[in-house]
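Issue 218. Parser rejects a valid record. Input:
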Amino acid sequence: FFSSWRRIVWDGEDGIAAVYPNPADGGRLRIRWSAQPGAELPLQITDMSGRLVWRETLTAGGFLNDTPVN
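Output the parser choked on:
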C-alpha cells in the first residue's frame, strides 16, 4: 500500500530535509525543512496533472522546522 506519488522541486538556498510519513496517513504529511529564522518558504503541492491542491507561505521559527500539511 502506497500513498499518491508527489514530486518535490526545491529551488531555494535552504533545504527540505524530509517529507513523511510514506505512505501518507489519510492525505496528511509533514515537511521537515531548514532555513534561517524568519525566512519565508513559499510552498505549493500539485497533483499529477499539475493542478494546485495546496499553497502556503511558511515562516521559519528556527533553523529546523517541522510543518504539518493536511
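Fixed in the parser; the record now loads. Strands lie at 15-25, 28-34, 40-46, 52-59, 64-69.
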